[in-house]
Amino acid sequence: MIGVLIGLILIVVAGLAVTDYVSATPSAIFHEEDGDVFDDWDIARTRSFGEDGFYQLSETNFRPVIAFESLGEEAGLAYNMGTQIAAKYPDQKQRAEAIFSFVRDRVNYATDTDQFGYDEFAQNADELVAAIDQDGVAYGDCEDSTVLLAVIYKGAGYRSAIAVGPGHTAAMVYLPGYNKATAVFELWGESGWVWAEATGRNNPLGWVPKQIVNTEVAVYEISAEEIASSKPTNAPSVAITKASNGGSSRGPFPFFGVIGFLWLMSLFRRRRVR
User: Are 13 and 207 spatial neighbours (Cβ–Cβ below 8 Å)?
Assistant: First the structure.
């Protein structure tokens, strides 16, 4: 489903614990072309922008293609992890929290420079689960945790999405009636979307970082799609942000302009949110 723009106007935010930087090694074999590292699907892991970038960021939109490497015909370890957790937790809310805690606790924050020697290096969901299966933990930054969360949620039977804003990215899960969230978002005319921020050790599901307050972010609901260059065709819509206490804040926001989105891309060097 095509991403839409949302203005995040939040009521309550909480603190975020600090995690240590660590080092790790790549979990797969890639090839290099013109200074970028590509995977077997010819997706650049060292670049988020462009038609072959892992998020296919452009001047007006984005498409998190790296998530599709673990969905549909390509579904593997991460998607199956979701189905296993779903079998263990029949309660939808407990299951959502278990998935969030799994990713938060098993993916230790590490910069791409520390791990791979590149300013950017995205890992797909199956690579992270393979590392967890082997070592008990994986290492990555916010795009890695985001993609893993979104894919596992899909495997567990949820609708999930990936959000990208200035310098950061996070997952979202459709969980109507979840009253523990700092704020509840309305996307595509549906209220009940919850922010999933797994880059801090003590984050609960539904906590939203202060850096996102009053900023504009793009949101793309993931599904099984072809791993190929593609441009969204539907126009973005207006979104309404509803606070968890029942209040709401309305306001139409224009989709990213060229200057604004290029600025966003220049800041899209994913970091730990404090």
Answer: yes
Q: Tell me how far apart the alpha carbons of residues 164 and 267 are, in angstroms, rounded to a whole number.
A: 11
Instruction: Quote the pLDDT of residue 274.
Output: 54
- Residue 273's pLDDT band (boundaries 50, 70, 90)? low
Planar angle of CA 237, 238, 241, nearest 5 degrees: 135
Task: Tell me the C-alpha distance between 154 and 224, whole Å.
Answer: 10
User: Residue 22 corresponds to which tokens in the numbers above?
Assistant: 């660590």
- Rounded Cα–Cα distance for residues 168 and 102 (Å): 21
pLDDT tens figures, 64-118: 999 999 999 999 999 999 999 999 999 999 999 999 999 999 999 999 999 999 9
Give CA–CA dist 201/19, Å, rounded.
6
Residue 104 burial (C-beta neighbours within 10 Å; 0-12, 13-18, 19+): buried
Q: Measure CA of the first residue to CA of the last residue in the chain; give whole Å.
A: 30
In the chain, the amino acid numbered 55 is Y
Instruction: State the pLDDT at residue 266.
Output: 43
> Is residue 35 packed enough to be buried (19+ CB in 10 Å), middle (13-18) or exposed (0-12)?
exposed
Q: Which residue, among 1, 6, 3, 44, has the nearest Cα to 191 in the 3D structure?
A: 6
Predicted local confidence at residue 249, as pLDDT: 31
- Nearest CA to 165 out of 123, 225, 121, 209 is that of 209
Q: Which tokens in the block code for residue 142?
A: 């916010």
**Both tokens of residue 9?**
């106007």
Strands 190-196 and 183-187: antiparallel
Give percent above pLDDT 90 in the chain. Answer: 59
Q: If you search the block for the tokens 């290492």, which residue do you land on?
A: 139
What is 5-42 written as a DSSP string? EEEE--S---------------SS--EEETTEEE-TT-
Query: What is the dihedral angle through the alpha carbons of 246, 252, 253, 255, rounded to the nearest 10 degrees?
Result: 120
